[in-house]
Amino acid sequence: MGKGDRKSKRGKIWRGSHGKTRPKHSKKITIDKSKKEKAE
Hints:
rod-shaped
């Protein structure tokens, strides 16, 4: 696993590509407050 490996993070950085290992945008988990209040 190194620069030439397409599946490794270092390989994605070297190639300038993205994928599951190196997503373009990090997904943020948000908690919906309206659903939490209804449950209580």
